[in-house]
Amino acid sequence: MLNEFAWDERYRVPRADETLTPALVVYPEMIASNIASTLKLLDGDANRWRVHIKTAKLDYTLRMLIESGVCNFKCATTLELLVACRSAARDILMAYPALGANARRVREIAAAFPDVRISVLAENEEQVLQWQGSSVGVFVDLNPGMNRTGIEPRHKDEVLKLVRAVGALRLQFRGLHYYDGQYGGVAEGERTKAAHAGYDSLLEAVSEIERSGANVPEVITAGTPTLPCSLTYQGFRGRRFVHRVSPGTVVYNDATSLAQLPARFAYQPAALVLTRLVSRPRGGVVTCDAGHKAVSADAGVPTCLVLGHRELTPLSPSEEHLPLAVAGGASGPRVGDFLCLLPRHVCPTVNNFDSALLVRNGEILSVERVTARGREEPLLGNAGNDSFAGASASFSGRSEAVIAPRRE
């Protein structure tokens, strides 16, 4: 991760004295710049980007993507799927193995939004069978070496067998999903070499499918760390399939992604956490109110960096407290001072907040809900009384019990 980031006046939060901290602050100007930077890398072709919305989370941000021409998305939860459907997304992949009640919920949402092209992942025939009779399409999930989900590409017979099973059930085979997210901690040159070797194996699987007479409509690769690797791999060019990349973090960026990606990509932080200093417990240590219930600690310590304060190093957080070591003889900030934190991992940090302040040009534009935060209520058929329910009125003729989300 980065160990420092210079202060920029565009990140100043107005009316800070009226703001409850910790607060998630999102900057539309920077989001727009990051979207434009990504589209530039894709030669202006928004169709090549399948954004993972686990980062974006806000309906506001999804609308910005859609208004920029992006129409292909990935998600990991049924709530994210629902929010994407409501945000006028046209093509959404549920990029997480959905089983049992989760699969039935995906079918409910697909039935409620027949104009949205919804796809799912499968790695075995049992997973394919549960979609029989539905409108969803199926991507075969490949294991690029993360050993998290999917079939290893070298097992071409298994891949081909699954593609045939999709067709036998009269479902649409929509392509191959290959998320090579294991190279984030590898230096750029070695990362590219390893990723390209994996893509060679991926294309062998594609060729095997095509030799069987089947068509591979789409191949999805690359989260944020391997975005540059996918862009430089020549084997994806001039093929019959559509190749799409699926970085999501680049919409907001964080201290990790900004260190992993080349500076020439011109990405900027677009989501920060505003925090107050609440204590000076001893010499050389100050404490702010942004523990791991605000800034996610899943990526390790330090959990963030403090913009414009290279003398401050975040220490191990507790739930609501974040101690900061003050270097050398520096006096450090005073109790009551405000700091802006750049998370090490922005995706779960955004998920920690119910609402976000939108700040542009030194003004607060609005307070927006983090619409896809958390999960739906756990029982199928239990819509409950959620604030989303009123929004369902705009979807005339559809059952509120089906499209109202089930919250935690």
What would your notes on this structure say?
A hairpin with a 2-residue loop joins strand 10 (271-282) and strand 11. The longest helix is centred in the middle third of the chain and has 24 residues, at 188-211. The strands form 2 sheets. Strands 1, 10, 11, 12, 13, 14, 15, 16 and 17 form a 9-stranded mixed beta sheet that branches. Strands 2-3-4-5-6-7-8-9 form an 8-stranded parallel beta sheet. It has helices at 28-41, 53-56, 59-67, 78-86, 101-112, 125-129, 156-168, 188-211, 227-232, 255-260, 346-350, 400-403; strands at residues 23-26, 50-52, 72-75, 91-94, 117-122, 137-142, 172-178, 218-221, 242-245, 271-282, 285-288, 304-306, 312-314, 322-326, 338-343, 355-360, 363-369. Helices cover 27% and strands 22% of the residues. Helix 4 runs parallel beside helix 5. It folds into 2 domains: 1-27 and 253-373, Lyase, Ornithine Decarboxylase, Chain A, domain 1, CATH 2.40.37; 50-246, TIM Barrel (Alpha-Beta Barrel). The protein is α/β, with parallel strands linked by helices and 408 residues long. It contains 12 helices and 17 strands.
What's the N-to-C terminus distance? 32 Å
Class of secondary structure makeup: alpha/beta
Gyration radius, rounded: 22 Å
Number of strands: 17
CATH topology of the largest domain: TIM Barrel
**Approximately what portion of the residues adopt beta-strand conformation?**
15-25%
Shape category: globular
In percent, how helical is the residue content? 25-40%
Return the CATH architecture of the largest domain.
Alpha-Beta Barrel
